[in-house]
């Protein structure tokens, strides 16, 4: 598994000073909302509040967008999509951010921090699930290839922070070329 050493270092060095605090859900995804059956564009309920806390609202947005997959994303992300974010009329990640910032009036100096944090957070969740699968604590075959997703998330985070080469991390370097082919980049 990739160590995410450079990603962790970059996150630590780029923590925004301009954050605000409010109640955040901390697991904001489509499968945690109830939509109005008469108007599925309207949320009428939000589920799974057990991870709610006080925090930066942009952390919720960055974490939600880590699950956001569009048809223009690589095959690894498309094959593991769990949200209907690819449907016609859905915003892409950039449009979601622009809309959110317009509606909230927030103006982050470093949006990349939130996006990279969301990817890092999702990779940690995927590692926990894969660990359980690998050690036979669960036998759900859907988890069998999570190691590939973890590497793809690592590369996505590295690209966002501008690290195309990872000389200091031989394990990650070994996978870069392999996943460049898979990612089509």
TrEMBL record:
Superkingdom of origin organism: Bacteria
Matches recorded under InterPro entries: ACAD10-like (IPR052898), Aminoglycoside_PTrfase (IPR002575), Kinase-like_dom_sf (IPR011009)
Transmembrane segments: none
Boundaries of every Aminoglycoside phosphotransferase domain copy: 7-76
Name of the protein: Aminoglycoside phosphotransferase domain-containing protein
Species in which this protein is naturally found: Acinetobacter bereziniae (Acinetobacter genomosp. 10)
């Amino acid at each position: 598994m990739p160590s995410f050493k450079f990603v962790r270092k970059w996150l630590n060095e780029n923590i925004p000073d301009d954050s605000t605090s409010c109640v955040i859900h901390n697991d904001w995804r489509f499968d945690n909302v109830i939509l109005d059956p008469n108007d599925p564009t309207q949320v009428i309920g939000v589920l799974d509040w057990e991870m709610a806390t006080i925090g930066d609202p942009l952390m919720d947005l960055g974490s939600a967008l880590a699950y956001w997959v569009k048809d223009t994303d690589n095959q690894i992300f498309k094959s593991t999509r769990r949200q209907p974010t690819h449907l016609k009329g859905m915003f892409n990640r950039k449009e979601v951010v622009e809309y959110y910032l317009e509606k909230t009036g927030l103006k982050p100096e470093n949006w990349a921090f939130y996006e990279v944090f969301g990817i890092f957070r999702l990779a940690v969740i995927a590692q926990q699930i894969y660990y359980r699968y690998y050690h036979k604590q669960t036998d759900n075959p859907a988890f069998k290839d999570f190691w590939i997703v973890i590497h793809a998330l690592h590369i996505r985070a590295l690209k966002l922070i501008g690290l195309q080469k990872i000389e200091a991390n031989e394990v990650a370097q070994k996978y870069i070329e392999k996943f460049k082919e898979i990612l089509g980049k």
